[in-house]
Amino acid sequence: MCYTLGFVTGVLFLLFDRSPFVRFHAVQSTLTFSTITALVILLPVLPGGALLSRVVMAFSIILWAFCIVKASRGEAFKLPIFGDIAEEQLSLNYT
Questions:
Q1: DSSP string covering 28-71, please?
Q2: What keywords were assigned to this record?
Q3: What is the DSSP string of 7-29?
């Protein structure tokens, strides 16, 4: 559920859920999808950035679906970079 609305649900679950598993996914979702959102908004400013922004958006949809499926199955997984940061923030070791 932390991935349902990208970083928005990540923030909500981080605030209201105490489960370490859910909190990890909430932080990971918030970091990942807020970064992607910023890229999609800022990239069109650069030359050729509009196309790159669309590529990032397509990638994010695939990543979003992947995260929803994995988390709904209760699987512990870390995304590169953001999973490590989430783990550090929560002082957990899932993988």
A1: HHHHHHHHHHHHHHHGGGSTTHHHHHHHHHHHHHHHHHHHHHHH
A2: Cell membrane, Membrane, Transmembrane, Transmembrane helix
A3: HHHHHHHHHH---HHHHHHHHHH
For residues 40 and 13, the answer to whether their CB atoms sit within 8 Å is no
End-to-end alpha-carbon separation of the chain, Å? 20
Contacts of residue 6, defined as CB under 8 A and 6 or more positions apart, other chains included, come to 29, 33, 34, 36, 37, 64
73 backbone dihedrals φ, ψ, rounded to 5°: -85, -5
Q: Which amino acid is at 78?
A: K
Q: pTM of this prediction?
A: 0.80
pLDDT digit string, tens, across residues 5-62: 677 777 777 778 788 888 888 889 899 999 999 999 999 999 989 999 999 999 999 9
- Using DSSP, state whether 90 is helix, strand or coil: helix
Res 95: pLDDT: 52
